[in-house]
């Protein structure tokens, strides 16, 4: 009994010691619990402050999301426009390739048609010149044959007159012989008969007078015979000269054909000048249209510049807001870490976690909201990219259109220059051919004139006044025929000078067109630079949006991690608290 009593006392003392230790532990746990309650109150106040702060941040985030939505919408619109313009560019490129192929085929066909037309035109011109030459040769030959017939009739009349004069001469010679015989008989009779001297002297004087008259008649007949011989020689020379003229007339016809060819070339040059004037007017109209288009393009560029400036301002604002959002996110992360540490400490010490589920639900709702906002922002970024691509495509289409217009204007300028060069070459060839033909004609006509003048001057000494007048009229006509080609040459030279002046004026217009084209090219280059700047700004905006999306994803991941860690810690703290309460309850 004493041993049992001693053992019971020992056990009682041991139990008392344990109770005292448990009481001390309970007191310490009560103190800790009071401290934890104080800390829970502090945490509640801090949570309320953080909730207010989170609400403010939510407001700021909503504003930022609205701004990002606007930016993403603009980016999406730009991307859509750029995509549309890219599609249009592709279609235009395919059409351009088709048009280039068709244009190449048309150019080949046109070159073939031009060659065939040139050949046919040359053949037609050759046939026309041959017909004209044949007709002129026929006319000249008919005229010369008519002149020859007239000369033959005059020669026949002169020959008949010569025969008559010869008959008269023979008759007069016979009469002279008879008179001489009579004179001899009279002399013999005077010598034989003794007639008075006075009567014989009278008869002798009468006979001498008759002899003088008959001698004068004979001298006149000799002169007429000489004149007829000279006329015959002159007519023979005129026949020879007329034959030479017939030979030269064919050459003159050829020269006249060359002159007509030169006149035709001058007419063609006038037609070419008219065409060039029409083309220059068309080019001026095209230049006016190009200037109007340039003004429209400048207005569009000014609008685009304003848009770019507004986008740059929005981008700067977005960058500032992104930087502020980053700073706020960093502060939130720091505050989240601090809250995490505090919650860990509180979870270890506290026994319940009634408010944890509500906070976790709120956090999950916020995460879902942020995810939705990020998806909307991504959609807006896609829209912005599409609109930007459409704008780029439209700018490229406009640029390609301007480039095509520039190429078309350059082609027209090159064709005009080629036509001007061809016209100048034709003018030079026509001038040289006309000068050569005129020189040859002048040389031949001067030689003919000298020969005719020498022969006719020799014949003038023995011709009567009517023949002199006829010869003078012929000489005047020939002089006028010699002077007419010189006048024609002067007229042609004046026309050539006028054509050259017009060509110089057209060259000046072509240079002005080239200068205007250079200005258009410069403006197009400036527009390309502006488009490149727009592309760079859009790329920067897209990069900033992508960075913002990455940051939001990181923030979501951090929030998910913090929520999971909080849940795990709360579960562990609740399990530990239940175990401690159960143990205390058991010991109590």
Fold and architecture overview:
The protein is mainly alpha-helical. The protein folds into two domains: about 1-40; about 60-335 and about 355-585, no CATH class. Helices cover about 95% and strands about 0% of the residues. It contains four helices and no strands. Helix 1 packs parallel to helix 3, helix 2 runs parallel beside helix 4 and helix 3 packs antiparallel against helix 4 (about 465-585). It is rod-shaped. The chain starts with a helix and ends with a helix. The model is unreliable at about 195, about 350-355 and about 455-470 (pLDDT under 50). This is GRIP domain-containing protein.
Largest sheet: none
Task: Please give the domain count.
Answer: 2
Helix content: over 70%
Structural class: mainly alpha
Give the SSE layout.
Layout: H1 2-192, H2 197-349, H3 356-460, H4 465-587
Helix pairs in contact: 1-2, 1-3, 1-4, 2-3, 2-4, 3-4
């Amino acid at each position: 009994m004493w041993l049992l009593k001693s053992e019971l006392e020992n056990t009682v003392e041991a139990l008392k010691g344990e109770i005292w230790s448990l009481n001390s532990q309970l007191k310490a746990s009560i103190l800790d619990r009071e401290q934890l309650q104080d800390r829970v109150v502090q945490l509640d106040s801090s949570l309320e402050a953080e909730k207010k702060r989170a609400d403010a941040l939510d407001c700021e985030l909503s504003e930022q999301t609205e701004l990002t939505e606007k930016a993403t919408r603009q980016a999406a619109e730009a991307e859509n426009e750029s995509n549309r313009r890219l599609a249009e560019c592709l279609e235009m490129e395919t059409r351009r390739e088709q048009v280039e192929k068709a244009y190449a085929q048309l150019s080949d066909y046109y070159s073939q048609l031009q060659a065939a037309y040139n050949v046919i035109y040359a053949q037609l011109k050759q046939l026309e010149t041959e017909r004209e030459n044949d007709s002129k040769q026929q006319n000249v030959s008919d005229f010369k044959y008519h002149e020859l017939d007239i000369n033959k009739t005059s020669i026949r009349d002169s020959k008949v007159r010569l025969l008559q004069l010869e008959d008269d001469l023979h008759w007069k010679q016979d009469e002279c012989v008879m008179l001489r015989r009579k004179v001899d008989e009279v002399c013999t009779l005077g010598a034989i008969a003794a007639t008075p001297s006075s009567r014989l002297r009278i008869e002798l004087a009468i006979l001498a007078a008759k002899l003088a008259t008959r001698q004068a008649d004979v001298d006149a007949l000799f002169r007429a015979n000489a004149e007829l011989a000279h006329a015959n020689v002159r007519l023979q020379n005129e026949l020879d000269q007329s034959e030479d003229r017939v030979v030269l007339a064919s050459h003159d016809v050829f020269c006249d054909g060359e002159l007509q060819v030169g006149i035709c070339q001058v007419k063609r040059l006038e037609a070419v000048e008219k065409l060039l004037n029409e083309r220059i007017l068309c080019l001026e109209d095209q230049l006016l249209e190009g200037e109007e288009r340039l003004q429209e393009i400048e207005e569009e560029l000014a609008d685009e510049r304003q848009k770019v400036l507004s986008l740059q301002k929005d981008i700067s604002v977005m960058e500032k807001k992104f930087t502020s959002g980053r700073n706020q996110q960093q502060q939130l992360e720091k505050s989240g870490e601090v809250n995490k540490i505090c919650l860990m400490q509180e979870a270890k010490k506290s026994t319940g976690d009634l408010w944890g589920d509500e906070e976790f639900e709120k956090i999950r709702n916020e995460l879902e909201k942020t995810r939705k906002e990020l998806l909307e922002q991504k959609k807006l970024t896609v829209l912005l990219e599409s609109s930007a691509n459409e704008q780029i495509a439209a700018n490229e289409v406009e640029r390609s259109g301007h480039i095509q217009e520039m190429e078309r204007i350059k082609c027209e300028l090159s064709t005009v220059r080629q036509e001007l060069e061809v016209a100048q070459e034709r003018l030079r060839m026509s001038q040289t051919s006309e000068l050569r033909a005129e020189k040859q004609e002048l040389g031949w006509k001067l030689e003919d004139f000298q020969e005719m003048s020498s022969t006719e001057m020799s014949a003038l000494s023995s011709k009567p006044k009517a023949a002199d007048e006829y010869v003078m009229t012929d000489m005047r006509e020939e002089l006028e025929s010699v002077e007419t080609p010189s006048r024609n040459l002067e007229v042609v030279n004046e026309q050539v000078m006028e054509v050259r002046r017009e060509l110089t004026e057209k060259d000046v217009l072509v240079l002005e067109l080239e200068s205007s084209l250079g200005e258009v090219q410069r403006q197009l280059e400036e527009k390309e630079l502006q488009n490149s700047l727009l592309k760079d700004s859009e790329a920067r905006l897209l990069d900033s949006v992508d960075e913002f999306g990455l940051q939001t994803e990181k923030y979501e991941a951090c929030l998910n991690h913090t929520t999971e860690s909080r849940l795990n810690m709360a579960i562990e703290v609740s399990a530990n608290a239940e175990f401690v309460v159960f143990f205390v309850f058991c010991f109590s």
